[in-house]
Amino acid sequence: MSRTLFSKRLELFPIAAEVRGETLFISGLSLNDLAQEFGTPLYVYDQATLDRNLQDYRAALSAAYPGKSGVTYAGKAFLCLAIAQWARERDLWLDCTGAGELSIAQAAGIKRDNVLVHGVNKSQADLQAAVAAAGTIVVDHLAELEKLSMMKRSGSHPFPQIWLRLRPGLAVETHSYTQTGQSDSKFGMSPDEIERAVQLCRAANLELSGLHFHQGSHFHDPAPLEPAIETALDLLDRLNRQTGWFPKMFCPGGGWGVPYHEDELPHPPVSDYIGLVGRVLAQGCRRRGLPLPDLQLEPGRSLVARAGVALYRVESVKQTDQRRWLLLDGGLADNPRPALYGARYTCLPVSAPERANEGPAWLAGPFCESGDVLIERLPMPAVQAGEYVAVPVSGAYQLSMGSNYNGARRPAVVWLNQGRSTLIQRRETLDDLIRRDLPLPDPHSGDAQ
Questions:
Q1: How far apart (Å, rounded) are the C-alpha atoms in residues 220 and 330?
Q2: In whole angstroms, what is the distance from residue 265 CA to residue 8 CA?
């Protein structure tokens, strides 16, 4: 492998990645040793990368926006107890979707005021959990607001603050599956519906404190955010003049993209994204004579994706007429993104990663789907069965969307920090696969019909 190609691929790994003695290391730990100790597929998360990414966000917000600002970690990217604890220790807000993620936030001890609940179709159980445990609920539609109004009238506990989710009619440039801001999106409310929602909140004595919108995930050009922010400010200006209401919090969501493949480098600076948001919001408020709201951003992928690396064992090498297949012990079940919307990845062998390329390889998993191809046509060295490969930028929307397809057991997850490894999620066992299952009645028992 050429030095240039190797350097580019290594740049996609966590900031603490390096080669020592022809072996890949992260945070001073050999990936070969970690794979042998914990087994594969294995996901590792580097705390130093998470901390650096958060530092970049906070520095960019401080430089770009003259008002108060904050960061909410989007739990949908990847959430477990350890990630929630990391967020708590750094006084981040945590974005939860539904009762399940709320339970993780509670177990981690996240302050109620720092818990934010999203969801396009929250069930009654989700709403009850949110009312009991969250500081803020982002309302997606008017029917949901009616439910919350009834709960407010009948409940005695402290009630969360309310944000309204606007559908600005403008999406960012990204895959159609991850666009959310367009006029026919299933998410959010039109400006007219937002006006009605403000009236309903006042009538129900709900504390309305924020306006939110989100235009899509994994975008690299922040320009489409400018007209969306202007649309939101036009609406808020009108509401302010008509009703006197103006939100304390303004949230244009998250979704800033990251490179997954060496062809997509360099890493896009978060300052490009935050600089535009801060400038447009501050200038737009000034032109309209509006006060500056608190600016809250909701990154997930751009905080956590690069921090994660997936390790696989090459179980077999197969040559067909046109392709060299490296068949791995994981794939579709732990990372559905390539099959779902054509996500591109790259990888390096864990041992001797700089050795010369043999030619293109296709890396695929063991599952009964032709779409179970993790990486296509990637220049790779000669790799033998039993070797480990490392796939960078594996920290977001992989484990959170994983499955037990073909009876796959979810991988173990290990936290890396300053030369120490900590198991934060154990590998699922065979017993785990049937833990929820109940048998049919014994046809020979007296209870059988």
A1: 29
A2: 8
- The answer to whether residue 439 is domain-embedded is no
List own/partner pairs for 118-124 with CB under 8 A and 24 or more apart: 118/76, 118/165, 120/186, 120/187, 122/98, 123/98, 123/99
Give the pairing type, strands 308-319 and 348-349.
unpaired
Q: pTM for this one?
A: 0.94
Structure tokens at 393: 């930028």
Of the two residues 435 and 449, the one the predictor is more confident about is 435
Q: Which of 80, 201, 251, 368 is catalytic?
A: 368
Q: How far apart are the C-alpha atoms of 333 and 366, rounded to whole Å?
A: 9
The rounded mean pLDDT for the chain is 94
The length of the chain is 449
CA distances from 266 to 10, 198, 220, 260, 269 (A): 12, 43, 11, 10, 9
For residue 289, is it within any domain? yes
Residue type at 282?
A
Helix (H/G/I), strand (E/B), else coil: 420: strand
Distance, in Å, from the CA atom of 213 to the CA atom of 181, rounded to the nearest integer, reads: 7
244 in a domain, yes or no? yes
CATH at residue 294:
3.20.20.10
Burial class (CB in 10 A: 0-12, 13-18, 19+), 5: middle
Give CA–CA dist 236/245, Å, rounded: 8
Sign of CA dihedral 310, 314, 318, 319: positive
Quickly state the pLDDT bin for 187 (edges 50, 70, 90).
confident
Q: What is the pLDDT of residues 70-129, one digit of tens each?
A: 999 999 999 999 999 999 999 999 999 999 999 999 999 999 999 999 999 999 999 999
Q: Is 218 among the domain residues? A: yes
- Structural domain that includes position 147: 48-304
159 and 292 together in one domain: yes
- The Cα 449–Cα 447 span in angstroms is 6
Q: Tens digit of pLDDT for each residue in 256-275?
A: 999 999 999 999 999 999 99
368 is catalytic: yes
Helix (H) or strand (E) holding 228: helix 225-243
